Amino acid sequence: xxxxxxxxxxxxxxxxxxxxxxxxxxxxxxxxxxxxxxxxxxxxxxxxxxxxxxxxxxxxxxxxxxxxxxxxxxxxxxxxxxxxxxxxxxxxxxxxxxxxxxxxxxxxxxxxxxxxxxxxxxxxxxxxxxxxxxxxxxxxxxxxxxxxxxxxxxxxxxxxxxxxxxxxxxxxxxxxxxxxxxxxxxxxxxxxxxxxxxxxxxxxxxxxxxxxxxxxxxxxxxxxxxxxxxxxxxxxxxxxxxxxxxxxxxxxxxxxxxxxxxxxxxxxx
Length: 269
Hints:
Elements: H1 9-29, H2 31-56, H3 62-93, H4 95-117, H5 121-137, H6 139-169, H7 171-180, H8 187-225, H9 231-241, H10 247-263
Helix pairs in contact: 2-3, 2-6, 3-6, 3-9, 8-9, 9-10
């Protein structure tokens, strides 16, 4: 029996390095395709029980059950966006009051700076005008970047929803591909590993949603007890921003402080 040739170490090392470089190149230059696909995999795992319910209990075809699951997911996201938008529109309706409050607060801050740091209001306004002009100089580029970001986000959402639908629709075909990639004796292990991965991801997303709900409810309750205006909006924003580790909660705190100081009276603050 002929001996099986084993490649030398430097050949294995070169193959590993080339594979890593190729993978990195694919990730960097293919992020527009890979990013919605990765998110679609997460959301398809989350929506899989719902799609199975419509398929097994309601006896709908797989395409219809997958489509209804994605549509319900879009409806939930649209409902959250509608709630946030309605609260922001209410905040915009109080713009005259906010403007007067911000003007009063700004005048108080000017007086405090002039009293403690001996910088009069003229010097403060000159500094503000200088900083504002620098910001306005780059406003054109910022507007163009914002438009591109919005269009990229819309394309990202569209491709993510399409990928989610097709992952739910062809999940058995994908499972057969994974099983075929390994030897027959490992098929049971492949099924077990995939099931465990689905379970962990589903529990993680469920826990994340539960955490967002608890944080939003607690913040809303505290702000309502404190008599803070727009308590529901601040609680909802805090729960949504809490997804982002560390930075999110501080961003929500900053927004809450700004809105609170802008809407409350001086004596109440």
